[in-house]
Structures are given as structure tokens and as C-alpha cells.
Amino acid sequence: MNPPDGEAGAALVPDADAALVSRSCEVSDVSFGSFLAAGDRHRIHWAAPDGLEVVGGGAAARLTADGPDRFETLRRDAETLFSVVDHEGPAATRPRVFGGLAFGADHDAAGVWEGFPAAAFTLPAVQLTRVDDGTYLTVTRYGPDADADGAEEALAAARDRLDDLPMMRARGEKPGVVDTEWLVDREEWTAQVASVIDRIRGGDLRKVVLATALRVDLAEEIDIPDTLGRLRRTYPECYRFLVQPTGGKGFFGPPPERLVRREGEVVETEALAGSMPRGDTPEADAEYARSLLESDKLQHEQRLVVDTICEQLDAFGTVGEGQQDVRKLTNIQHLQTPINAVLDGDTHVLTLVEALHPTPAVGGLPLDLALSTIRETETWDRGWYASPVGWFDAAGDGEFAVGIRSGVAGGREATLFAGNGIVGDSDPADEWDELQPKVRPIMDELEREARTE
Ligand SMILES: C=C(O[C@@H]1C=C(C(=O)O)C=C[C@H]1O)C(=O)O
């Protein structure tokens, strides 16, 4: 499905002499899974609970950055990329770049994260967009020679290729799990949690989110588009994303948590922290929800996140805190508080991401001390786990989820991630139990047999 990268005259990196030309047409509803499965490089998938769904293949252009200035580099290169835009099509198909960043700026693109820079966004060469009023095919050309004729020809060719794709993609079998291994197992992780609790009780540290990873050996190769298709059914209330820069591993998952969304002057975010299982009966479920709301420890965790997000947004406009509620997902429930802001000025969504990431829901407080504790304690590489994933456009609007409930997978290997907020009155054994549901969304799509425990 994908045209080769860097087709005649195309510039993959932003270039002051280049133009961005994109053309869209409406298509009858096609299988997004088939489209993704036919691509081999720069595959992206983005689905937001409010209905926007995009799949992309190939890169018309890419923005990458690393080091402490990665946000600055991205904003500068985005300005170059979007300086000349010739787009014809509905607003939903306007040029957007999709991707994200590693958790930390000192990211090492090695091991399972090979091919994942510290920040990478792709302007898809070919894209399908599904919104309430229809499904659209978009082709984008970027480079000194990009022009309307070329884009229109490419659109016609992409439309022909789309006709050859199966309308429905038969659901494959789950790949099956041969073996699993926690990179930091129960004993070691609870010891890490105990030492973090000691640090919190003894000093200035207030909260640290400690994570671990589950390495999974699969019986068959994973089919990520198929897995995402299943997650659409099991976690319809969540985002779904895939970032797959090369033909190698893909980072994907169904995160429930919005980092930030900016549309014009309106900013929406949330604090999501504090977890309880779902109950087997409505009564048991309501009991868990009540204990979420009434737990001093979980309310403390939640309050730290709310206050920090509000303080951080305060610099950009007028901030409002919504009513706290319980967010029920298929296998877990969380305390959630919506937070919104009206911007004073034209603040790019990347600037908001830079200010908010990592929130105390995935980092901790105070941030510097929490990050150094994470670095000293976690013996494995977070890579892109718990990082911002999403999109932004020429206007600086965009939406980002927090890359949790996620995994990085390819071939017969997957690594899934899960973390928990630790505060002074956390209990290490309880925290380990609370961690388990966080790998289940993806794990349930890998295992063939229903669990017996
Ligand atoms: C860190 C994760 O989740 C975060 C931590 C939570 C908690 O500590 O209760 C709840 C929701 C998320 O903000 C994860 O899923 O890996």
C-alpha cells in the first residue's frame, strides 16, 4: 500500500524550499486493519474515544529530535514543514503528524527500542481518516517538487490500490504465549517499592511511579493490526495507537489516559491516578468504586496529580478543575478529575506536552527527585512507555495520550509495561497486585487460553 519513501523530489526532513501538498477523497468504508497490514514502514494508527480514527503508511516527511532540546527542535522543524501547505479536502484530513517521544530525553534507541528515536513524528504519505461523517483517503507529497498534479495522480493510484485491499480482514488467531518473564519480578519489585517508600517517608520525595515490564515469548508472530482490532472491541473507551517507524517493532496499546488536547484556545486534560479492580457483581464493583473514592491514600495520590497539572497549566491561561469521578475501564477503575484551560496566547500543543510530561501519574513529585529515583531504581529501559503519543497539525492543535497499558512487539516477542504510583503509605504487596491488571489489556489478546486463576 505504501509508496516508497522519498519518492522523486520528496524530502523526508523539513526543508525551507519544500512544499506540502495533500489531496483527499471520500471512500466507501474500508478495512483499516487491511490497510495497516499492507504497509511495511512508518505505520501509524491513532484512534481517540471521541471518534477520530486514522491509519497511515509511508512517510511524506518525518520530524525527529533528541536531547534536552527535543521539543524546541520539533516545534522549529514543524514550522518549516507546515510553512507552505496546499491541502484540498475536509478539515479532518488536513495534514497532521503522528508519533510521540521517549519517556526521557536521554533515550537510547537500542534493544527493543531499535528504530525509535527520542522523538519521532510522521506525516503519512497515504492515510485513511474515519470521522462521523465518512471515511477519507488522503495522499500527501512533500518536497521541492511536490505539486498538485503529482498529488492528484498519487491519490488516484492510492485509490486503485485501496480497491485491491480486502474489504474485511479475517480475524486471525491470537498468537499464543509460550513463556513470560518479568524483567523485575515480584520479589525484586516489591523490594524496590519498599526502598522508595523509605525514601518518601524520610525526606522531600512525595510520590514516585515505579514500573516493571513483562517479556512475553509468543508461539506465532504477532499481527499488530489484528491485535489493535481486537482491542477496539475489548477497550472501546480507550485510545488506540500504533507507532512503527521501521519494519521492525511496533509500540502500541489502548491507553485510557489523555495527556492533553488543544483545539484553538481550549485545552483539555485530566488527572488519572488511583486504581481498584472491577468487581464481579454490580455490588462488588460499586464497593470497589466506593473504596476508591474513600481511600485517603488514593485521594492523596490523585490530589498530587490534580494540583501539579493545574499549576503547570496556570502559566498558559485560565484553568478549571472539574468534578472528580470514577473512570471504569473493562478490567480496572481509576479516580479521574477532568481539567481544562482557556489559553491566553497561541501556545503550541507541543509546548503544553513539554510542560505536562511526565505528570505525577507516570513520573512523581517533586519531578526531578522522582525522575532520579526512577533512574536509580528501574534496571530496565522505559523507552517510549508512559510517554506522550499523538498528533499535531499546522495550527499547533493536537491531542496526546499517555503511552501506558502499552507494549512494544514484533515477530515472536512482546514486552508489556505496567507501573504504579507509590506514596508514603503504600504497601509493596498491594502495589504488586494493583500492577497486574495493567498488562492484561494486551496480554489477553496474546494468550490463546482463557486464564484459569
Ligand atoms: C503508570 C500506569 O498507570 C498510571 C498509574 C495509576 C495508579 O498509580 O493508580 C493509575 C493510572 C495511570 O495514571 C500504568 O498503567 O502503567
Automatic annotation (TrEMBL):
Its EC number is 5.4.4.2. It catalyses: chorismate = isochorismate. It is an enzyme of class 5 (isomerase). The keyword Cytoplasm does not apply. Residues 186-438 form the Chorismate-utilising enzyme C-terminal domain. Pfam families: Chorismate_bind. Keywords: Isomerase. One of its GO terms (molecular function) is isochorismate synthase activity. Belongs to the isochorismate synthase family. NCBIfam families: isochor_syn. This is isochorismate synthase.
